[in-house]
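Issue 218. Parser rejects a valid record. Input:
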Amino acid sequence: MPTFSAYDGTELAYHEKGEGEPLLVVPGGPMRASVYLDDLGGLAARRRLILLDLRGTGDSAEPDDPATYRCERLVDDIEALREHLGLDRVDVLGHSSGGDLVTLYAARHPKRIRTLVLVTPATLAVGGVVTVEDRMGAAALRKDEPWYPAVETALREIAAGGAPSAGWDVIAPLTYGRWDERAQAHRAQSAAQKNARASMAFYGEATFDPPVTRAALAELTAPVLVLAGGFDGGPNPARAEEFAALFPGGVCQVQPGGGHFPWLDDPEWFVRRVEGFLAQH
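Output the parser choked on:
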């Protein structure tokens, strides 16, 4: 397991899978160990995945200063990894809340980005929101599922300003295109793979300055792929399209039947689209 030293001396780890051109992969969670990404549905057969364990997660050390868990502070860890790898420009993929992190990285270091892939990304960095209506709209697409009535009830309770009476896990099926045994096992591992303290710090107060970030992204010349899941509510395809439009070289593709972890729902489709995009540039 290779490691490198961050700007503050924290020892960070990354995992390499596959061979070929490197693709730097930043996990979501927020602050979930990269193990949940596995080989991204077989993408490692086409690319050498460099899967970063963010500080305090997986095999990476915890920092002395918990304020360095903030999203905007983690940008420096990505840059330190790029320097460690000796790459002038990098292909970068960010998933979910990792999308916010790599968005900030692209805004701060635009000349270091060769291509950018944002998989079902969070968009708070640019002022994006995911509403209860977005999630209810996504849930309605699956109204014939046996779990739908419980999810609908939970979403209505959230819309009314409360927490679901049955607990937050009740809406977990919404994040997968298929709520099968594999998806349930993937979900069951989530809590153990996340650093709860770091997760709470990730989106700290005044973490983002959306107008500044949007202005910086308008100058980014690198090609950008925003990949959304057709069943995902955060972001839903419409929000993903809006996000892609912020990049001069941005395109959006929607995976039919995909959820928030689309490489699990249709690995072949996911790999074909992501590798196809990377190979074009």
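Fixed in the parser; the record now loads. Residues 90 and 113 are 5 Å apart (CA to CA).
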